[in-house]
Amino acid sequence: MPAARRVNVALALLVALLVVVALAFTAAEPAGASWVALAMALAVAAPATGLSVLVVRKPEGRQVGLLLGLLALTVAQVAAKETWLQWLAADGDPRRWGWLVAVTAENAWWVLAAFGLLLLYFPDGRLPSPRWRWVPAALVVCTAANQAYGAFEDTPFRAPLADLERPFGPVPLWIEVVGVLFFPMLGLFVACAVSMVLRYRHGDALQRQQIKWLAIVGIGVPLYPLLCLLEIVVWGEAAWVSAAVGIVSLVSTPVVVAIAVLRHDLYDVDKALALALTWGLVTALLLTVYAAVSSVAGLVVGGDSHAGVAVGTAAAALVLLPGLRVVRREVDARTYPLRRAALAAVDDLHRQVSSGRRRPEELQDVLRTVLRDPGLRVGYRVPGSSAYLDAVGDPVPEDGVPVLLDEARTGVLVPDRGPASAELLREVGTRCGTLVEVVRLRSEVARALGEVRSSRARLLEIGYEERRRMERDLHDGAQQRLVSLGMRMRLAQRHLDDGTVDVDGLLDESVAELGTAVAELRQIAHGLRPSSLDDGLAAALANLVRSLPLAVEMDVDGDPLPDAVATTAYYVASEAITNAVKHAEATRIELHVVRRDGQLLIRVRDDGRGGARLGLRSGLVDRVAALGGSVHVASPEGHGTEVEAALPCAS
After folding, report:
1. Which of 181, 199, 303, 552 could form a disulfide with 145 if both were Cys (CB 3.0 to 4.6 A apart)?
2. How far is CA 488 from CA 288, 474, 478, in A?
3. Where, by residue number, does the polypeptide cross the bilayer (predicted)?
4. What total number of domains does the chain contain?
5. What pLDDT digit, counting tens, does each position of 59-86 carry?
6. What pairing do the DSSP bridges indicate for beta strands 599-606 and 377-381?
């Protein structure tokens, strides 16, 4: 086991022993027990010890883990002393132990010393620079001197031993000199806090992230003694403000230290720091207003404390909301400028899009600029799938930060190498949800219009091609036969009288040629509209499936139908059945046609191998779309194919 872990285990055992001692004295005298001290032991010392064990396991966190364990030890020894004093006053012999009471009277300063050392060595276990080497030793010496001075003070002990006589005689001169070190000690506490600022300015990105975590609560502990002095000056004694600042800072410190070392990227520290600074400054503002107004009111009304308190409270309440807005704006601008700039840019784009001055598709460029991430991409969700496309139609990865609108995921932000945290990207994603949805809808409409234009172009091309085919078929077939027929008839006319031509045979050939031409014309016409539809759709479909080499279950209802609807329905069924016979290896086909709710519904299902695909550019889709209908194909592998078409058909 490394030496650091062995030392940490020893510290943990000492903390456990002191907590047990505090619990024992509390149990022995519960009526007068120091519950605050016991609560501090359980809320600070115990968690700090456990977290120090985790932190010290990391090579870069060994020194910090040891200092966290030392902080737990100092809190535990204060708790043990306070509970012992309560027991001593109730059941013990205070005179016998007066010397120990005097020696430990100022041991709480060691908590601040341990915290100062933690600030000084955080986050990598090294001093900010060699010039700071004297600070740890000076801090320990000043704290020890302050405790020694407290042992020789001639002021009464604190309750519950206020009547206990001081065990030591008059204060020696050297102790009087030592007492002067109290103010350098306060200066050293502040210097430890300042060291974090210097380390932040010269540290790398990781150290800055870690320092931000400790800064959320770390400033409060060094400020505790200064707040105590301020309260004594203003109110004549230490009040609840300094106590609240110290307790909150101590309770939170082990947690933020552990997060900073173990999981510094787990949350958005900038947002948390801005929130802590905002409410800290607002609290200071309210206290200042309260103290100033209540003091002035007390002087005006002649010392009526109740009136002063009431006026001070009212003034603080009036200042709260406007003060909160101003402080939040200024803190965000200075501690989290990236967030403020990003949200302001999104809001500005939203306003300009609403007024028609800019396009929502500019969102990606705006975010790239304001978040300082040239590679950032904005993806818009494709309807009916989990895929994402950017504004120009290129695919975007799905594993980015979601963009939400009313809890629905409409897009995704995919950062590249920008400085924005995941939490900031989530906040930006939520703020730009409306813009992303607008772009997505515009892209969807543009794609739909493009598909409509393509479909119309394909239909025109199909019409042109059909006319060319008809022209070719007529020219090569029926037209040639009719020309030949005309030539034969002219020949028969010229030689009718001289008998040199077999007119009867020529007329027979002409009649046969005319029959062939009529048959070819019928075949060409059948390509435009099947002649079997003359007897209705049901008869045409029955004729279509009559000669198929597999079982067909047919249920057709809906006649009479408009000619265009019947023709399109026939072609839908014909193509689906042909594909089932040729490609699906089916043994059974179900054909159902029904007229319902102003639509003609065609469904063709087979038991083939499945895996069929109906291209969006197929002639069948275009033919159905031309009538305002729709086609859907379901063809899972190994489970057959089902083609469903719906054609508008007014009753």
Report:
1. 181
2. 121, 19, 15
3. 34-56, 63-80, 100-122, 134-152, 172-199, 211-234, 240-262, 274-301, 307-327
4. 5
5. 777 888 888 888 889 888 888 888 888 8
6. unpaired
